[in-house]
Amino acid sequence: MFYYDNWPVLITALEMYAASGVSVFNLPIMNIIKEIYDVLKLYEAQINLNIEFGIVIPNIPGYNPSAQTAAISQRMCYNECFYKYREAAEFILFADLDEVIIATTGNLLVEARQYHFQYPEITGFEFLWKNAEYNKVSSPSTFSPNDIFNRLKLDKIQGVGMSIVIPKKLPFSPLHSVRGMQYNGVELKSMNVKEKDGFTLRLRNVRPEPIRTEQYPQEILDFFLTTVSTNFLKRKEDSSFKKALDNLPRESFFALQLKACKTKSYNNQAIACSEYYSLQNCDLDFTNSPKSLAVQADYTKHRYNKLNVYSCSNRQIVYKENCKFELPEPLVFLITNSLLSGPKPFKRPPGTEHLQCEWVYDGQHPEYVKQLADNRTTFVDPEEDHELPTDCASIRNRHNWNKRPLSQEEADFPIAIARTIYGDYFYQEMTLAAIYQPQNHYCLSLDVDVSEVNKKRFHNLASCFPNIVIPPVERKMNSDGYNIDLANLDCLKALTTKNKKWKYVAVLHSYDLILRTNAEIVQIYKWLNGANDISITNGGPHRVSRFVNWTVNNVKLFKKESKYHKHFETNDVQLTFVRADNKNKMSLSREAVDFMLKEMDIERLINMINNRWVVGTDEVVFGTLLSMPQLMIPGHFTQECIIQMRLNMYATNHATFGNPKYCFSNKFVNNVCVFGIEDLVKHVHYVKHISIKKLLPSFDLNAVVCEVENTYQRTHGIVPYQPLNRDYYTSLQHTCKTIEFAPYELNCCLVLKHTFATPLRPGLGMVL
């Protein structure tokens, strides 16, 4: 809000949207008259209004953003709102304060859902403008929205308007509509809403001499007008609200000046784009202007590659004697040579400096890829400690470890990674360094047969970083799964000790190579929305003893001190065993892990099932518990898909079992493909999963280095970012949620349009 003192329109717009099904109001402020701010603060507690401190483009030397930037800071404020609510909201509408989208049904949320159901390919539903002339309000103490509606004169409908958009289909916020916008090279589709179904009311012109006789426009339904006015009159019954209204200015100070300035700007042929005008072109008179509040912030200049980046922080609102708004100057920091050079490059291990990884990925050099495949580079950890020193200085010098979160979103969403480790220290160090984030937590559960020199190396690594932990117990694990569940449990316990905060944990094996950047993993976990990610199928019962009565009570699944123990004493449940596909790789929410560790005796159940002579003994416990709704673990799934003989797709890990068609290296270990350099493009790089099994340095170090390097480069913006396929992750059966107007039906294939699986907590409906 810059100099907006037309409070009758502001209040009317808020009341109309509140009566129209808008869930959240987001109002960015740069400069505001104090008395109007006082009224908005009262609304903030009543209609879920969020008063945000806006972002102002700083006054960069040699560039005046107020004069040279379209719509001043509107785009930045819109984008901040967009990214804040993009995943939570079904719909967002971006509107000026004097524009109100009206649906003839009276409810914008219902209308938007119906349009989305009928036209799923559309990104924005455009409600065309109707300019309106309204009576001037005489007194704040007697004001009612009816004063605006009475004798409201509507012009003919125009060819453009404001849109309700589906944010998940957009790369960034529109200003008015999605016309001409593209996402991933595809033009987004917009649809004009018919006038009989709705339009955008533009309260642009005030009638200086009001017409007193009552007459209301037919385009606005009587019940809607009644609802708006009734709600407002109820608010006026509150003495604080009424007092704040009485203090509002009776005359607009800036409205006429801004209108004159805009008219002048439109008529000025020197202005390139007549849709926008700047305060720089306005000669505003601030003499005796009202007292105001303005946003104050720290603006800091950074250097990123060849760009100057200005960050905004510590935003607050401060009192000012008048409304004059001045653009801030950014703080100029001393830029070091290392910062000027941009992100540090990935450090390749010795022997791979010659690699042309870009040739591997571009598809234009098949002979080069074949040459690498025919002459593979391999690596095995040296046996002598001095040949691979692991003092902290050596570890830090071998790689470029992140020292701070790369984004606020990543800082606010820490994750954890738990691994069982069988060896290959350098491989683990290199792959961890490429994805390392200081806000995350990492656990390495060592096999007892790891060589002594490598055990020392792993413990040295953990001692160099406060967020890497190694459980004190070393277990003898094998490829059949023996003791792997216990090793995973050791890590889960270690990761939930005091002060370890994270949202999700990925439980992986030693050679599961992470393909996604940390930011991408955070996004995927947000799309999971609290669901646990594990793939289950048939094959569990024959892996447990048939001589045990496998009920919750008999195996003492819940601890005696658990509040659930008493419930199951009288409501015993038979455990229905399933098998976790792909060797028990999974992503668990913090809530699920805390529940299982606090309420359940998981270790007892694991020990009852853990059997060194049974193949896949590690694939039973977690898959079973997480797929039984009766056990009430947060984010659980269901076993209904197994009944339908369907395997649920998932996001945590990908592997190729026994099929040479999808394994060009033709190298298999325990029936699992070991991918080589020739597999990267077709079978590794473009899979949608968080990690992949497996790439081995002892088989093809070049393949490992190229893929790890690419992840590092995408993490730091060295290579272009490719957006994730959101539909894949949100269409997983265990992540989908119901939509009110679509019939509920569990679909055990990838979810079809408007057919959703287990409902999770609902998101926001409409955001303004």
From TrEMBL:
Taking the record's annotation, the residue ranges forming a coiled coil are none
Q: Name one Pfam family in it.
A: Glyco_transf_92
Does the keyword section mention Transferase?
A: yes
- Main location per the UniProt record: membrane
Classify the protein's membrane topology as the record does: Single-pass type II membrane protein
A single GO CC term, please? membrane
Tell me which UniProt keywords the record has, alphabetically.
Glycoprotein, Glycosyltransferase, Membrane, Transferase
Q: Where in the cell is it found?
A: Membrane
A Gene Ontology molecular function term of the record: glycosyltransferase activity
Q: Which family does it belong to?
A: Belongs to the glycosyltransferase 92 family.
Q: Under what name is this protein listed?
A: Glycosyltransferase family 92 protein
Tell me what organism the protein belongs to.
Bursaphelenchus okinawaensis
